[in-house]
């Protein structure tokens, strides 16, 4: 490792040279109480900025071991430090002058969720923070003086004010970690007491707008119906009260604009922890919960949808069903089966985004179109068995059909944004009405033995071979090396792997575009390394996720780990793989 003085000498030696001479700076340098590594240097001042990281040993950072020895606390501390580093960068961003992206200082912009990101990782030995810097230039000529300012003045101040416990407000750091530990305690409570979700009294569920995830000012705080209210005693906050939704089938009804979908949206994002001040800090949902919806046009590969669809007029086998252009009902049927395969213990469904013919068929329609002529068994007729035989609960928002009242264990009415438990009242009314015919025999969970087709197996010749470039998998690059398949991410909604687009816009529980970027890296690694035509989907996803949890981001990246990757849930890894047409 070189010293910071050697970096300064190198920097002076390339001053006023052509921009590519900056590449000679790549390497690691000791800066007193932290190490600076220049991982990748941009080729042009107008190109994507350079990638750097700093490493601070725990003995220098000084954080108590209890702040990072367990996963919930560690992730919360990583999130807090990332936000702190980002706020420091705001004071120095573009203070160094030049053309193009000269002077840019950036790290991940965190949202309302607390997520595990490559931007800040806490290992057993150190804190690692990854970020981007726009190396300054006059036109396309190196401006070493401005980069000297960034690396020897701005950056050390930002690091000092972000990653050293003695320079931070210890109370705020502690509060972030305590909140995470309290949220984890609620998750444990759900598992121990047979609950699907918990919504604390006083929670603020509505968001500011369709493009802002901040809490809406002036909105009605949540208050639980007395019949569903429970108290949970947390290790730090103490007792909190709120609505506990039991496992089983829960129906949310009410008039339009009374808050049904708002409650469901809060529950679907309750699979993640949220920062203080979000309003949903104690909206906690079973962390395997999966939002289901119709997805016209998606591809389906070898999924057994016979539980919902069979006896098609074209005699197509629905026990191993594939299509490149699924209908709404077919896609939702596949979503249910894929969700069970992904380990979901809770389905979240809004009838507004569901296929009507998949959800329910009323009495009159069953008289007009006999069961023998209708290949679809509606979700209404399978929901009870899904819970009792497969252990998968359902929370369903409905407003157009009363048929769901007969199968629901709990019925909530949203009235002016406040939930009312109307279960007893509605069950009494059900006795005065003819129950819908529910005749769905032969409930059987698929064996989930479907194997993936062989992928493009480029990639590594060995676990330690990480010196390859980017290109089409399976092709040889310079020096005879195998090259990566090329990734391009389009925000949160999609990415491409080589020329194959993967559409994730209806995977509604993705919270950040960096999760999409991470899914792209995971899928590429799977296509190059794992998809051999022998492993099942479950085996493949489990292998990918285990690799991520045990080895971190390194196996999925090339010569360095970039800032800009965020860990997705295993359910989103399944969803990504199931939508990959390649």
The CATH class of the largest domain: Alpha Beta
CATH topology (level 3) name of the largest domain = Rossmann fold
CA-atom Rg in angstroms: 27 Å
**Helix/strand-derived class?**
alpha+beta
Number of domains: 3
Query: Which word captures the global form?
Result: globular
- How many helices? 14
The assigned CATH architecture of the largest domain is 3-Layer(aba) Sandwich
Strand content: 15-25%
How would you characterize this protein structure?
The protein is α+β, with helices and mostly antiparallel strands. It has three domains: 2-168, no CATH class; 173-445, P-loop containing nucleotide triphosphate hydrolases (Rossmann fold), CATH 3.40.50.300; 478-578, no CATH class. It is 29% helix and 21% strand. It is built from 14 helices and 28 strands. Strands 1, 2, 3, 4, 5, 7 and 8 form a seven-stranded mixed sheet that branches. Helix 3 (71-90) runs antiparallel to helix 5 and helix 13 (537-551) crosses helix 14 (570-578). The longest helix has 23 residues, at 170-192. The radius of gyration is 27 Å and the shape is globular. The two termini are 43 Å apart. 46% of the residues are buried. Mean pLDDT is 91; it is low at 456-482.
Descriptors for this entry?
single chain; 582 residues; alpha+beta; Rossmann fold; 3 domains; seven-stranded mixed β-sheet; six-stranded mixed β-sheet; 14 helices; 28 strands; 29% helix; globular
List the helices and strands and how they pair.
Elements: E1 2-3, H1 4-13, E2 27-31, E3 34-40, E4 50-57, H2 58-61, H3 71-90, E5 105-106, E6 113-114, E7 120-122, E8 126-133, E9 137-138, E10 141-142, H4 144-163, H5 170-192, E11 195-200, E12 207-209, E13 212-215, E14 229-234, E15 238-246, E16 249-254, H6 260-268, E17 273-274, E18 283-285, E19 290-292, E20 300-303, E21 321-323, H7 328-341, E22 346-350, H8 356-359, H9 363-368, H10 383-390, E23 393-397, E24 410-415, E25 418-421, H11 423-430, E26 487-490, E27 494-497, E28 500-503, H12 513-529, H13 537-551, H14 570-578
Parallel strand pairs: 1-2, 16-23, 16-24, 19-22, 22-23
Antiparallel strand pairs: 2-3, 3-4, 4-8, 5-8, 6-17, 7-8, 9-10, 11-15, 11-18, 12-13, 14-15, 20-21, 24-25, 26-27, 27-28
